[in-house]
């Protein structure tokens, strides 16, 4: 049995998507004819003390990993993108609380450009694949023990 669609998703799925073309005109397309495939974001340089937070991994596991890295390096950088911003902030605050205030936090925000691929459901009718760029918020939190 098919799951019922929420009223919001049912209403949104029939709204045509407008995309600018390189020539400056606008392309209207039906979202039912294309499959949205989100590319992974460009990663910052991966250092041993960098932690990229996501919403799929268990919170306690991410917190334990951050604590282990912090014990080994005395400074870590927690990165969160989009929905994971809240989780990155919570992890940093949990680390600070568990250290009885011995840790300091330094947060920076940024905007990350993401690329989505729109693949046609039926290549014969819909046309060729399209790409779309969009912006998403990001946070970078430095968690460290201050030098004494």
Key attributes of the depicted protein:
7 strands, alpha+beta, 148 residues, five-stranded mixed beta sheet, disordered N terminus, single chain
The strand line-up of the biggest sheet is 3-6-7-5-4
The radius of gyration over CA amounts to 21 Å
Strand content: 35-45%
Percent range of helical residues: 25-40%
The major beta sheet can be summarized as: 5 strands, mixed
Description:
The chain has 148 residues and is an alpha+beta fold. Helices cover 27% and strands 38% of the residues. The chain is built from 4 helices and 7 strands, in the order H-E-E-E-E-H-E-H-E-H-E. It has helices at residues 7-12, 59-73, 84-98, 123-126, and strands at residues 17-20, 26-29, 34-38, 50-53, 75-81, 104-120, 130-144. The strands form 2 sheets. It has a 5-stranded mixed β-sheet. Helix 2 (59-73) links the parallel strand 4 (50-53) and strand 5. Helix 2 packs across helix 3 (84-98). The longest helix has 15 residues, at 59-73. It is elongated and about 65 Å long. It starts with 6 loop residues before the first helix and ends with a strand.
Condensed summary:
By secondary structure, the chain is of the alpha+beta class. The chain has helices at 7-12, 59-73, 84-98, 123-126, and strands spanning 17-20, 26-29, 34-38, 50-53, 75-81, 104-120, 130-144.
Layout of secondary structure:
Elements: H1 7-12, E1 17-20, E2 26-29, E3 34-38, E4 50-53, H2 59-73, E5 75-81, H3 84-98, E6 104-120, H4 123-126, E7 130-144
Parallel strand pairs: 4-5
Antiparallel strand pairs: 1-2, 3-6, 5-7, 6-7
Helix pairs in contact: 2-3
């Amino acid at each position: 049995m098919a799951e019922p669609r929420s009223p919001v998703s049912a209403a949104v799925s029939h709204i045509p998507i407008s995309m600018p073309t390189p020539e400056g005109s606008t392309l209207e397309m039906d979202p039912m004819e294309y499959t949205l495939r989100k590319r992974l974001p460009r990663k910052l340089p991966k250092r041993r003390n960098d932690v990229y937070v996501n919403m799929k991994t268990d919170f306690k596991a991410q917190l334990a990993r951050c604590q282990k890295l912090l014990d080994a390096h005395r400074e870590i950088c927690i990165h969160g993108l989009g929905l994971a911003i809240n989780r990155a902030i919570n992890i940093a605050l949990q680390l600070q609380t568990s250290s009885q205030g011995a840790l300091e936090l330094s947060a920076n925000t940024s905007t990350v450009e993401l690329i989505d691929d729109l693949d046609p459901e039926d290549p014969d009718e819909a046309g060729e694949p399209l790409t779309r760029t969009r912006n998403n918020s990001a946070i970078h939190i430095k968690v460290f023990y201050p030098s004494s």
